[in-house]
Amino acid sequence: MPRTKHIAAKKQKRKPSAAAEASPSPASPKTGSAVVGRTRKTGQATPSQGTSKKPHCFRPGTRSLQEIRKYQKTVTLLIPAASFIREVRTISYQLAPDINRWQAEALVAIQEQRII
């Protein structure tokens, strides 16, 4: 049997208690109701209220995976060439002081190397 997605059940909002509706609210003396910005018959928000939507939030790690895929597709260099070449030469000097000459193509190849 194939797997199917289940739709999450929506939670129903609680109505305010009868005691809260009976007493007039000091914040809205004109309406005499504790519920402000809602219609009396349906209890739903009025269109003029302007309900704002919650901003989308990705799960942890999703955004970083998107960035990895994005930068793997690009061909631009993330590190400037001059500073990368300088760092390669300092590291190679520390490991092998007798090697001090690099071909330009070799340095570019190291910088553009894609590890998959």
TrEMBL record:
GO terms for molecular function: DNA binding; protein heterodimerization activity; structural constituent of chromatin. Residues 1-16 have a biased composition (Basic residues). This is Histone H3-like centromeric protein HTR12. Residues 1-65 are annotated as: Disordered. Belongs to the histone H3 family. Keywords: Acetylation. Transmembrane segments: none annotated. Gene3D superfamilies: Histone, subunit A (1.10.20.10). Residues 42-52 have a biased composition (Polar residues). The keyword Glycoprotein does not apply. Residues 17-29 have a biased composition (Low complexity). GO terms for cellular component: nucleosome. PANTHER family: HISTONE H3. The keyword Zinc does not apply.
